[in-house]
Amino acid sequence: MTTSISRRTALKIAAGAGAAPFVASEGFAQSYPARPVTCIVPFGAGGSTDVIGRIVCERLSVKLGQSFVIENKAGAGGNVGVAATARATNDGYTIGMTTIANHGINPNLYGDRLPFKPLDDFEFLSLSSSQPNFMCVHPSVPAQTLPEFIAYLKANPGKENFGSSGIGTSIHLSGELFMQLTGTRMTHVPFRSSAGLVQGLITGEVKLSFDNFTSPYPHYKSGALRGFAVTSLKRAAIAPEIPALADTLPGFDITSWNGFVAPKGTPKEICERLSKALQEVLAEPAVVKRFEEMGAESTPSTPDQMRQKSVSEMAKFKQIIDTAQIKLQN
Fold this sequence. Notes:
Elements: H1 7-31, E1 37-41, H2 48-64, E2 68-72, H3 79-87, E3 94-99, H4 101-110, E4 122-137, H5 146-155, E5 161-164, H6 170-182, E6 187-190, H7 194-203, E7 208-212, H8 217-222, E8 226-230, H9 245-248, E9 255-263, H10 268-282, H11 285-293, E10 297-298, H12 303-324
Parallel strand pairs: 1-2, 1-3, 5-6, 5-7
Antiparallel strand pairs: 3-9, 4-7, 4-8, 4-9, 4-10
Helix pairs in contact: 2-10, 4-12, 6-12
């Protein structure tokens, strides 16, 4: 038996079928998350990225009603953890953090060896924080101010050294950019960790560093180190007495930043829900205050703003790396 239906009825059925996926996805987004969410942090426990991640995930758990659980996956300058995020199932139940290293510096250092595509393998959610590097010197350095120090280096080319926590870190590249903009010359001494770098600076093994703000700050406060400048465009709220390098070297801007991403293909509605929640959490006064106590600034953003940040950072560091002819050691 053949059943026939009117043209009007057929159109109603078609319209209903077309609307169904939207209703289903909308309901899915509203019910998300229905179980705990894993957040991969690409550095070890206790570091600044980890601390930021835990602060944010603690607030996301409250806001969205499910646990956001940190999973630390360190290695290769953060590449191991960020690659794990890229490879994770894109159902919204694994997200991750990325940093200036992974979406700014490392694409220029690793090239084809980078285990992910920084612009193609992720859904950007929001930037989370930025922290300047702190230009500090050993007290034996004769200069008392930044202009005096630049003049001293020009009068003594190659005499002094500067330390970093490794080749290709933002600390190392801050020193390279400083030399490029001032026309000075120093020897780079890489340490295995920030802790080793700080100790080397305190003992005078190296005379200068551009370490992440929180590491040398207590020693600057105690008088063990002399602080010259921060590497952000503006002064740090926690130390307003310290000038910005950009005051002397216009345009100098290297800040250690981080943010949140999801695997490529994570449903749009879930990404929008996560991005909105992140922006709200990062604007909470208590979160802003906790970041400031670390010498960091809360930097909520739209996904597109985060993507553009990555694009501009990769271009900036490519120029610095190419000019300095920096190569990773095998």
